[in-house]
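pls design
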């Protein structure tokens, strides 16, 4: 009886060690930004990309976040920052970490719409943004491709 108990414990232990359950691979999200020639009056613009909740996104101020563009080491939610040039496209991939993403645009003279909130969506792995002038507003459209469904964000 004791041998059967020991054998059962050993088998149970070995089967748990051989389990193939792994953590899921991090999902990469592609960000495509099309900067028009008149973006920010033809001047360079900085973009800051962070993981944030909807509540944090709503409360963040331009002045507070503009400090994080050049001092990202203290920001645990910092993903990346990009320099955007008028008339150029910027493409990069980030690890979604299954969290919502916010992109902040630092224009010379910002208006009240200078940031975009991109909620986590397991069906989407690409975001398309278009920037015109200094005004930041967005509309959401579904773009169907042969391979997958994408969301299209337009910033005017």
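designed seq:
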């Amino acid at each position: 009886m004791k041998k059967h108990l020991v054998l059962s414990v050993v088998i149970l232990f070995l089967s748990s060690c051989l389990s193939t359950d792994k953590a899921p691979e991090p999902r990469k999200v592609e960000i495509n930004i099309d900067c028009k020639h008149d973006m920010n009056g033809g001047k360079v613009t900085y973009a800051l990309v962070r993981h944030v909740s909807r509540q944090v996104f709503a409360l963040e101020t331009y002045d507070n976040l503009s400090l994080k563009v050049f001092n990202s080491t203290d920001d645990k939610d910092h993903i990346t920052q990009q320099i955007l040039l008028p008339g150029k496209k910027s493409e990069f991939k980030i690890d979604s970490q299954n969290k919502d993403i916010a992109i902040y645009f630092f224009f010379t003279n910002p208006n009240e719409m200078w940031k975009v909130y991109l909620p986590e969506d397991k069906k989407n792995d690409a975001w398309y943004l278009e920037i015109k002038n200094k005004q930041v507003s967005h509309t959401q459209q579904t773009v169907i491709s042969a391979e997958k469904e994408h969301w299209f964000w337009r910033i005017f």
